[in-house]
Amino acid sequence: MSSDYRSIFRGGAAHPLSGATVLQIAPDLEDNALARATIEIAAALTRIGAQPLVAASGGALVSELQARGGLFAPFPADAANPLSMAINVRRLKRMIRAERVDLVHARVRAAAWPAYGATRLTRTPFVTSYLSAYARGGPLALRYSSVMARGDAIILPSNEAARELARLHPAAAGKAHVVPGGVDARVFSPRAVAPHRVQAVRRLWDAPADARIALAPAPGLTVAKRALEAFRRLADAPDAGLAGTRLVIAVDDATQVKAFEAAITAAGLGQVARAAPLGDDRPAALLAASCVALAAPEADLLGAFALEAQAMGAAVVAVAAGAAGERLLAPPDVEPERRTGWRVEGEDPEAFAAALREALALGASARDRLSLRARAHVEAEYSMERLWSLTLDAYASALALHVAARSPAR
Questions:
Q1: In sequence order, which residues have a C-beta less than 8 Å from that of residue 28 and are 6 or more positions away?
Q2: According to the CATH classification, is domain 21-182+384-406 in 3.40.50.2000?
Q3: Residue 310 in this model has a pLDDT that exceeds 60
Q4: Cα 30 off chain centre by
Q5: Which of 118, 77, 117 is nearest to 95 (CA)?
Q6: CATH of domain 190-381
Q7: Per-residue pLDDT for 3 more than 80?
Q8: For residue 308, what is the DSSP state?
Q9: Extents of the domains making up the chain
Q10: What is the pLDDT of residues 129-153, one digit of tens each?
Q11: Of 54, 112, 201, 335, which one has the greatest count of Cβ atoms within 10 A?
Q12: In this structure, what is the dihedral angle of CA atoms 193, 197, 201, 202, given to the nearest 10 degrees?
């Protein structure tokens, strides 16, 4: 991925979206990754002279949205039953007309179905966010997810997701825009995290003060079991050099800790691993980790961890297929001395364990060099400005498609 891209904020002609009203629909504005991405794009729209409108059920970040120039519209975006969706079509139709909305971006499936209906009725450009997870499941699940392939522009987090989109929906492939995410390097910076924040995270994990931490974010139990299997193989090797190393399975939902702890016990790793909430301080959690293990190819959410971990200087091991692997520099794409992490082909726990062993065995000087390379890679290729630019380019593409469709044939 090249870092040579057109800035949307520095001089030149007005952006195609300048003066436009853009409606994003999100489930809520609680403090989560999706809500923060929505607010970032609202801020970017404000900077180019567009009017950002966000429809969601509310949440703790409503005031932040408003402070950054966005307007909030209460809307039950997560309503998934057919009757509620039908009602939401009418609500969105009225909102689009009342607010003179020029483009709609539906970020989740429950909102995309009514948004699709309302935008077709009002002839409004329609943008969707497509995840690789939408390519899996039975016929009913695929049918439900198919609305995310109906956008005039389709935003995807990875090239892997784009390939899945093209496989299932060939007609949509030409509308795909890969937007791999961005990192606020001011927040995710080792220099920005005070030592007491790292100590608080280690206490949350009940980690000894001198323990090395291998952190495995686990959006689900399947991901946790993959990380545990790799770590078990590593622990079984007498020369693995794991003395003083702890594996922390970071769970999203604190109520699931017991289920994850049961998986740890079943793997025979009760003495060296534990399940715990990641905590509210992600930068400190990643700085506390010597290594971050991203053991699932299909979990798009792990792509954000790959970027943030590199920004914080942690060694990253990820499955090659999927969003996380795409965000690393690793052989054979680069020379070993240019790597920013380890990519593991396939789902081989033995290969994943070997990569973990290598990452954990780095000496202090080698770790420092890796950290500097990783942070430079993120700053060059995954800045927030690049995220804004690529997303707004997708919006402009959808808008241009509609303008072209309405223009009389010559």
A1: 35, 56, 57, 58, 59, 77, 78
A2: yes
A3: yes
A4: 16
A5: 118
A6: 3.40.50.2000
A7: no
A8: H
A9: 21-182+384-406, 190-381
A10: 999 889 888 999 999 999 999 999 9
A11: 112
A12: 100
